[in-house]
Fold this sequence. Notes:
The structure is a single chain. By secondary structure, the chain is mainly alpha-helical. The chain folds into four domains: about 10-110, no CATH class; about 155-275 and about 320-325; about 330-425 and about 450-490, no CATH class; about 505-700, Orthogonal Bundle (Tetracycline Repressor, domain 2), CATH 1.10.357. The protein has 24 helices and no strands. Helix 2 (about 75-90) packs parallel to helix 4 (about 140-155), helix 14 (about 450-480) runs antiparallel to helix 15 and helix 19 packs across helix 21. The N and C termini lie far apart (about 125 Å). It is a peripheral membrane protein. One of its GO terms (cellular component) is GARP complex. This is Vacuolar protein sorting-associated protein 53 homolog.
Amino acid sequence: QALEEAQKAIQQLFGKIKDIKDKAEKSEQMVKEITRDIKQLDHAKRHLTTSITTLNHLHMLAGGVDSLEAMTRRRQYGEVANLLQGVVNVLEHFNKYMGIPQIRQLSERVKAAQNELGQQILADFEEAFPSQGTKRPGGPSNVLRDACLVANVLDPRIKQEIIKKFIKQHLSEYLVLFQENQDVAWLDKIDRRYAWIKRQLVDYEEKYGRMFPQEWCMTERIAVEFCHVTRAELAKIMRTRAKEIEVKLLLFAIQRTTNFEGLLAKRFSGCTLADGTVKKPEVPPPSTNPFLEDETGAETDEIVIEKSDTDKPKKPKVPDNPFHGIVSKCFEPHLYVYIESQDKNLGELIDRFVADFKAQGPPKPNVDEGGAVLPSCADLFVYYKKCMVQCSQLSTGEPMIALTTIFQKYLREYAWKILSGNLPKTTSSSGGLTITSLLKEKEGSEVAKFTLEELCLICSILSTAEYCLATTQQLEEKLKEKVDASLVERINLTGEMDTFSIVISNSIQLLVQDLDAACDPALTAMSKMQWQNVEHVGDQSPYVTSVILHIKQNVPIIRDNLASTRKYFTQFCIKFANSFIPKFINHLFKCKPISMVGAEQLLLDTHSLKMVLLDLPSIGSQVVRKAPASYTKIVVKGMTRAEMILKVVMAPHEPPVVFVDNYIKLLADCSTDTFQKILDMKGLKRSEQSSMLDLFRQRLPAPPSGVENAGSLSLSAPTPEQESSRIRKLEKLIKKRL
């Protein structure tokens, strides 16, 4: 029963659903019928609106064309300007209806009216400003002012024709006054050209300023056309009279011309130069360096090299003067006169530097202020900066490349004539030096190869060369900024920078050779001492005292004079260590034979020299600085080798196997020559040496790890028992002395 009731309920539900579906279909059909009428009404409304609008436009067009033709005949340009623009705008709505004859006819009438207006306006301007004769007295009329407004709406060629004819007529007097055969046309009277155009522009503003629309920029157009004409006329007359051009005359004309171009930039925006007939040069970013300053810094007497982070070169900005070069471009083909003049002037400047140096002599030593840069260096780069600024104002093309070549020539001459040419010669030492005099511990400037003045001169030349090197690099960067982008690759001062680097290297080498040579007699004395006869270990030997004396005499002077160039003082220390230590070891090998006590004395001397060398960068200074790690590493490595050689010499050669293994462990040197020298120092007989060498060769293939790690052994490496007591005794002696 329940099932039957459920089935009946389902049947009833299906019936209701069917009824709802039928009603929905009827409703949908009804909505379609209603909206069909609404859509038709919408389409009708839109079509009707379009038709009314089009008919209104047609009415406006037809009436406008009739009025336009009538006003044109009556020259009512004021009304025509507004009407014509409206007619043209309305006509645009009928572009899709041009197939209709009536519309096409109206369009043709508009075009005919435009052509007629154009010809009529040109005729009016021709009548008011005839090509031949003077301008019509009384100034411009309102008719012409309104005609310009009409020309704005007409074909752009009409406007260009009006502008062209007016400017040509306005400059006709200029072409007559400054003809090539006239006296005022030459460069020495170039001021008169610019004075003439200034008067003309003032006259134009008073008489015709209101006639032409402001957006035409007629004043600027007249000035620009004047510049083009002037550039062509000046180029022609300079080609004809090229032999008469002198440097002063050329620079005078260029200066007056660039001043005039600057005046134009202040007065006009340069909007009429949009087509780009004038190249816009680049301007430098600000900096404290003379090659990165603005023009006002050209007269400074000193050049500052250091640059802060904010002064790093930036991308050049577009200049404020769009008129740069619009006239002065014509002088570029004749700038060879300027370049030749600078070549001559720089040659005379270098000669004067040489003469002044000979007359005044080397700079006086003044260790309190550090090594002084030669004043001629600053003078040279200030002159370079002045030349570069001048030339970049004249041209950024080939003349800049020619000037760069001149710069390169005289940078090299300065490096060789002023710097290298004045370095003291190594053969200039006065008086012979004896070992006896070297070993006397007294104040003896006579033991120094170079005098104090010569040492200061070398340091001054080194500082000057470093200054030139840094400033030349900045000069190269500045030249690349000034020159055209296409010519940047041709600016390369690497060769000149290398030249200054050579001067620096030679100066450091002279300082090293001087100190090295002063120490040579002491090392010779060391090698000639009878070390086998030394009976007891005392204080450091006289030759060590002599070496220390020379170091204390020379190094403080060099350090104080190179205070402004610490990296080169560090190079001096490193080069001296690299030169002195191998020489010391070679002389050490010459000390033969050596007794056990003699080896202990030499080890004490070696340790003393090692401590002095480690303290070399700050020796004699009130301010103690930690020596550079690179220098310390060289000294420790070299002097430790010398100490190891002496330790091997001190070790007993019996038994031979222990001696050979000890040698390999301490020195890690597989050379038989070195081993032979050790045996010579010990004073072994040839027969003993032969068997020892054979054993050494047999022991060489020992585990490679032992050889590789031998370099890491320190002074505390284990020694044979036979020498342990002597080593402990020697260490106590060293500690006591320290």
